[in-house]
Sequence to fold (385 residues):
Amino acid sequence: MKLFGRKKAEPAAFVQTGRAVNYPFSDLMGYAPLGGHEARLYEALREAVPIIDAALLKLVRLVGGFEVEAEDEAAQGELEDFLLNVKVGPLGKGIHAFISCYLDQLLTYGTAVGEIVPTARRDNIAALYNVRLDDIELKRGDNPLEVTVCARDEGGKPVPVKYPDLVLMTALNPEPGKATGVSLLRGLPFVSGVLLKIYNTIGLNWERVGNLRFAVTYNPGNDPLDKAYARERAMSIAREWSEAMQAGASGQVKDFVAVGDVSIKVIGADSQVLDSSVPVRQMLEQIVAKLGLPPFILGVNWSTTERMSSQQSDILTSELEAYRRLLTPVIDKICNTWLRMRGFRPGVRVEWDVINLQDDVEGAKARLLAAQAFEIENRLIHGNS
Fold:
């Protein structure tokens, strides 16, 4: 069924390197769930380690905004109004809200899925919907180049969607032969587990230091009378010490008076608390390196130079450009679908906002020096001629 009047694409030739499926129940093995334990692991990882959650949110914001220019000038005004006011999910509005959630899902799980929801008359797009990965599965076909998106019916059985052209799907760095992508957080569970163990130990140590435990020891002397009443004196000291501690807890000052050889020590005061700065930094370095963000953006104050910060910003710019290249086809498909539904000629151009992570003053100085160098070179060339 042709939804938008497009010419049916010519089927691809058989892939010679694809493995033939001879298993009699290959359909059961062909479904690939997108959610599951791995997805929940990444969700827990973002919740447990704040720097990971902050990094992903910053990446989504740093990718920036965009504008769409239609080749059909008559459609430009309506297209801009559609992109600004299209309904996204139950509460969102505008295509930027959809793309932000779409990119967040892509970075977290490695695969992002969305859906174009048309109106009942199929003459407009009613909403854009970010799909939960737990609600769908992928079915590999006989041709390795074909993948069918399946939704679960009331009985939980995966059923191919009726209009696959309305489904949006993007994979982040997919492995050869796989349709699903790789999460940006892959490789971090072990490192994050070590970091959480260190933090948990620090919390336990500070709880012990902040809530002191005392050892009160009474040593009877050589006097036979002291030894005879050692038990009674020990119980009296314990009672007096307990009352003094309870008074201190309620904000009162009460002295503790004891007779005889009594020693009071803090339990665990002699034990040395391990220095956690070095191992914590080592774990954070691995996390920051995997996320691709410069440390200063995440508020990590490591020693750095001005030139190093500039180079890190340039590397981050290339990372953001790569994410934009993944999102551009999704925006194109949404806009072209809307243009066809509205009867306009398809064809759009996505213009992303300029990424500027450098200091404007430094950039102006660089342009000034370049202009001065160009002028000096012209003078030398004309002078020699």
